[in-house]
Amino acid sequence: VAHASVDDLALPDDERGHLEFLVAAHGLTAIERVNRVLDGSRGETSAEHSWHLALTALALAPSVAAKLDLLDVLAMLLVHDVVEVDAGDVPIYDADARAAAEATEQVAAQRLFGLLPAPDTARLADLWGAFEAAQTPEARFARAVDRLQPILVHWAGDGAAWRERGVTVAQERALAEVVGGFWPALKPLADALIDDAQRRGMLAD
Amino acid sequence: VAHASVDDLALPDDERGHLEFLVAAHGLTAIERVNRVLDGSRGETSAEHSWHLALTALALAPSVAAKLDLLDVLAMLLVHDVVEVDAGDVPIYDADARAAAEATEQVAAQRLFGLLPAPDTARLADLWGAFEAAQTPEARFARAVDRLQPILVHWAGDGAAWRERGVTVAQERALAEVVGGFWPALKPLADALIDDAQRRGMLAD
After folding, report:
1. Which residue in chain B has the smallest CA separation from A16?
2. Which ranges of chain B would DSSP assign to H, the alpha helix?
3. d(CA B84, CA B47)
């Protein structure tokens, strides 16, 4: 029996395009990241990560980024990982693989956002491109949140995934610098988490 | 060894409150829903559901809800399930349990949003309350998306969870009415999905 297909839905092309994109994007539930869920039982999925980033931005924005267009921030965070449906997640600790992934992610963006009707293709692809380019204040805040949240989740899980991979204090201090480079007001949070992680021996020397 | 605690972080109270809330909210990754991920291997988590709802609203809003405050819609969808960290997910098919859950969810909202600094407690609790009350156009669109998305995900998974529970065409038609009651422009999408599900035998008579 053939699988359910949007081609069989009695809807205009544009609405079928919306639904095809939304079904494809749901594939982010199959992409597991390095950091774990709180009880350590499995990796956080990129779908869960995307939600938690948006919630983090929503919670923190009035305190540390009050002048930003928060809608733009949330929209970028909601779409920023969709390319992983085709390209997979590349751990931040692997710099060579991250560079190689860029071309793959461009192709993935064209295919996935291309499932949408044309105006929405452009709108969502532009959000993804703005996040990647990190030029606007909104994109820089979003990028900082994307670097801060894994530190928080690793720490909250008592550093289980850090220990397993032998992640070092220096590696996390470098990530805190990235957070601060994108959004200085978030660096104290990254620093405090890494200080405590170091004190508790979650990170290697 | 004691677990990582925000009490040990060298940060002002407000910032510790933000982080404590964000860690607690991450517990939505442990709440599994009735509808499955696309390959049927497990239930979608409430964290994944929340992300996919927000993405759905972002993708569809210009076509079907262009006049709404989209930031308000996304913010409501990002927080609407946070109470499930304490109260769990109550399947929509169980009307008695849904009614009983309301008091539990009020207590959960007080505890969880109460972890935040006071202005953010009020802001996020108000978003949750507005979603539950379903009085504003933004809340009604958000509620419609929350009812449409499971139909889409069940359908995309070839109705595996529907079949297992013996969910009927009449039950899903009733949900399509709820979608249409909240946001008429989304009802044709629900109808088309249920029509195809019925044709393919995903739903019981």
Report:
1. B189
2. 13-25, 46-64, 70-79, 84-87, 95-113, 118-133, 137-156, 160-165, 169-182, 187-199
3. 10
In the stretch 24-53 of chain B, residues with CB closer than 8 A to chain A read 25-30, 37-39, 44-45, 47-48, 50-52
A190 CB within 8 Å of a chain B CB: no
> Model's pTM, two decimal places?
0.97
Beta carbons of A21 and B59 less than 8 Å apart: yes
Write the CB contacts of A128 (distance below 8 Å, at least 6 apart in sequence): A76, A79, A80, A82, A83, A109, A113
Per the CB < 8 A criterion, the answer to whether B175 and B203 are in contact is no
- Residue B97 near residue B103, CB atoms below 8 Å: no
- Which tokens belong to A42? 């499995």
- Both structure tokens of B22: 């964000």
Interval B9-29: pLDDT, tens: 999 999 999 999 999 999 999
Instruction: Give the Cα separation of A44 and A53 in Å (integer).
Output: 12
Of B51, B119, B149, Cβ closest to residue A50: B51
